[in-house]
Write a structure and sequence with these properties.
The chain is an alpha/beta fold. The chain has one domain: 3-Layer(aba) Sandwich (Rossmann fold), CATH 3.40.50. The protein contains 6 helices and 9 strands. Strands 4-3-5-7-6 form a 5-stranded mixed beta sheet. It has a two-stranded antiparallel sheet with strand order 1-2. A two-stranded antiparallel sheet has the order 8-9. Strand 3, helix 2 and strand 4 form a beta-alpha-beta unit. Helix 2 packs across helix 6. The radius of gyration is 18 Å and the shape is globular.
């Protein structure tokens, strides 16, 4: 019998024969990364989406990362991922709380006419592409801010968008086989500790 280092089943190491090893396929992995500054009002919406998702049971193959405004570390979180969802707030001219979903390929086309806030994300994704660590698919979930100011909190327009973004993200995971259809419906309530509130 031979061991596959680092493999786990239910938290414990297990052993398989060499013949079984030949048939094993690496499990696909996904990551959800939030960007944005929670001290700038609605611009921190992505962080609250991650906090809500952390209360869900997304399984062992889905990672969550809140990198705040550290967009220059983005490619680190994309390494060895098959699918990535980036969630953040960006003013694109829609009403506050509006949610847009873009594929990476769409971002390449629309970035010229959009806010310069898209540029750093686009550049890090291009860098990941050049390094050969770009996931095979990347989805951007963009929340339109209503209030941008130096304070903690979410506007009344953006609060409902947190739950909508969670549902959209879970639906994307379900469509790609990372989540069973029975787990797509969001929880009844999420606790946002930083804001000391439930949504």
């Amino acid at each position: 019998m031979s061991r596959i280092p680092g493999t786990k089943a239910g938290g414990s190491r297990f052993f398989v024969s060499g013949r079984t090893c030949e048939r094993m396929v690496r499990l696909k992995n996904a990551v959800i990364v939030s960007l944005g500054n929670v001290t700038s009002g609605d611009m921190g919406a992505g962080s609250y989406v991650i906090e809500a998702l952390s209360q869900e049971n997304l399984g062992m193959n889905v990672d969550l990362a809140d990198i705040g405004s550290e967009v220059f570390n983005l490619e680190v979180h994309l390494y060895q991922q098959d699918y990535a969802i980036l969630v953040y707030a960006l003013a694109r001219g829609y009403p506050g709380g509006h949610i847009s979903q873009l594929a990476y390929q769409e971002l390449c086309h629309v970035r010229q006419g959009c806010s310069c806030g898209m540029r750093p994300v686009y550049e890090r994704l291009r860098l990941a592409e050049r390094f050969g660590i770009m996931p095979s698919e990347v989805t951007l979930v963009v929340i339109e801010p209503r209030v941008v100011c130096h304070r903690l909190g979410l506007s009344k327009e953006v609060r409902p968008a947190i739950r909508k973004a969670v549902r959209l993200i879970k639906k994307n995971l379900e469509q790609r086989g990372f989540l069973s259809s029975s787990r797509v419906t969001p929880l009844v309530r999420y606790r946002l500790e930083l804001l000391q509130m439930t949504i």
